[in-house]
Amino acid sequence: MDLPDNFDAREAWPNCPTLKEVRDQGSCGSCWAFGAVEAISDRVCVHSNAKVNVEVSAEDLLSCCGMECGMGCNGGYPSGAWKFWTEKGLVSGGLYDSHIGCRPYSIPPCEHHVNGSRPACKGEEGETPKCVKQCETGYAPDYRKDKHFGSDSYSVPSSQDEIKAEIYKNGPVEGAFLVYEDFPTYKTGVYRHVTGEEIGGHAIKILGWGVEDGTPYWLCANSWNTDWGDNGTAMLLVLFFIPLEN
């Protein structure tokens, strides 16, 4: 496959609104769930030629997947998230207090390592929401009928070209990488680790790739709202990734 030097899924599929959405995981270590439902929402739209636009619920995945996905707000596994989508399905659900979809997110937004209009986050070890198998009042259809299912889930080898080809053909993927102390304060440009200790893993949605001043990068959407980074997105040095899920 002949791949371009630069690719942005938001421009490739302009009729899929979730591609442009930046969510907020709040004070909960649910990045594994957000990276998954963000990419799933996008891929449902891409696969349907923009006929199906749905915000897949992070709440449903976070609260109902259980041990197969890890520990809820205390961290989880992207692979388990995608498997849950194919086996149990996921309902719709928008941002906190949006009243969009069956199960919108119940954890309020907060400021992640930046000053802004929201209260500061209280770490990422909050209480995991309970698995409530019903939609919020006034939403139809009912919970079971609102489930969206994936036909298959799979990992992409850690090859730049294979990851790019997957995004180019099918839409965004979920990726995970090791976070160092200098990442939370990222603002713009291509991020590369310079100082600080390793502080853990993080999952994000990869929208595309590019080259800036000779430096290749992955274009990523974080789940720390639009006040963080470059309107909620980041350009991460290509060498930074560990295996992806989609």
Automatic annotation (TrEMBL):
It is an enzyme of class 3 (hydrolase). Residues 3-242 form the Peptidase C1A papain C-terminal domain. It catalyses: Hydrolysis of proteins with broad specificity for peptide bonds. Preferentially cleaves -Arg-Arg-|-Xaa bonds in small molecule substrates (thus differing from cathepsin L). In addition to being an endopeptidase, shows peptidyl-dipeptidase activity, liberating C-terminal dipeptides. Keywords: Disulfide bond, Hydrolase, Protease, Signal, Thiol protease, Zymogen. Its EC number is 3.4.22.1. SUPFAM superfamilies: Cysteine proteinases. PROSITE patterns: THIOL_PROTEASE_CYS, THIOL_PROTEASE_HIS. Pfam families: Peptidase_C1. InterPro entries: Papain-like_cys_pep_sf (IPR038765), Pept_cys_AS (IPR000169), Pept_his_AS (IPR025660), Peptidase_C1A (IPR013128), Peptidase_C1A_C (IPR000668). One of its GO terms (biological process) is proteolysis. It comes from the Eukaryota. GO terms for molecular function: cysteine-type endopeptidase activity. The keyword Cytoplasm does not apply. Belongs to the peptidase C1 family. This is Cathepsin B. It comes from Eleutherodactylus coqui.
